[in-house]
Write a structure and sequence with these properties.
single chain; alpha/beta; 8-stranded parallel beta sheet; 10 helices; binds 4-carbamimidamidobutanoic acid; binds zinc ion
Length: 317
Amino acid sequence: MSTPIGPTDSSLVPRFAGPATFARLPRTDEVAKTDIAVVGIPFDSGVSYRPGARFGPAAIREASRLLRPYNPGLDVSPFAEVQVADGGDIAVNPFAIKEAIATVEASASELLSQGTRLVTLGGDHTIALPLLRAVHRVHGPVALLHFDAHLDTWDTYFGEPYTHGTPFRRAVEEGILDTEALTHVGIRGPLYGKKDLEDDRRFGFGIVTAADVMRRGVDEIADMVRQRIGNRPLYVSVDIDVLDPAHAPGTGTPEAGGLTSRELLELLRGLASCNLVGADVVEVSPAYDHAQITATAAAHVAYDLVSLLALTAKKDR
Ligand SMILES: N=C(N)NCCCC(=O)O
Ligand SMILES: [Zn+2]
Ligand SMILES: [Zn+2]
């Protein structure tokens, strides 16, 4: 296998110059074979409150200019170990949710069939459903680790089944998740009723609340989560609103009392031994952001997810 093409060297070309691919990486059409693609899905037609996550991918890429090639948190140089490249954006129909979902599923499936692993930048949380469908086609039912303030296992909004509050209920109904290994982390805030929690438990989810993370600490939570996942193929979905609005103001449905970005990154680093097969970072809405706080957090989350995937991808290389 040829040596991976890495990012533009920021000691030679200023990091604020040139196109904003993720982490200044090459595009997928500039490399022979992509082991890990970072792909944007500029879609926010599924939101129930503030819009704007369609601009998330561009904002995260812009904030990713400052990332550096070695990740000390996971002791890996992801861009040197495997070929990581920016796959651009999936062009989805903003006026037709079902069609958009079908486009995401087809595009993701095409990339996965080429042996490329995906870290997807949203977009609102609706996109997790077609991404999970695509992953299921390759791996069968997967374990899900879902970082979010919200359960996203609600049934419908305005009678509509495909929204950013419903992807994981649909995924369970479709049988694409391994119901022995489903965990939400960071849950908090008011619900519609107690039944939300009962439904969620019935679908097989375990809940680690934001307060649990604070009380028990990241190491204990990471241990618990790892035990539940075992060596199953794992999909990680990160809704940036899992972070406290102080750490992620630029999002559509903010809830007080969330995780710090430090806690989230440390929880992710606890997954180094897991069999990660795909991941997304969703719900960055830059119009509500300040000083790139949210986009920076999302860029770092995506970088750690790429690093985790690189740890598994390099074994196959
Ligand atoms: N997936 C996110 N971010 N939010 C879901 C909020 C659902 C609601 O409006 O109740
Ligand atoms: Zn959320
Ligand atoms: Zn969500």
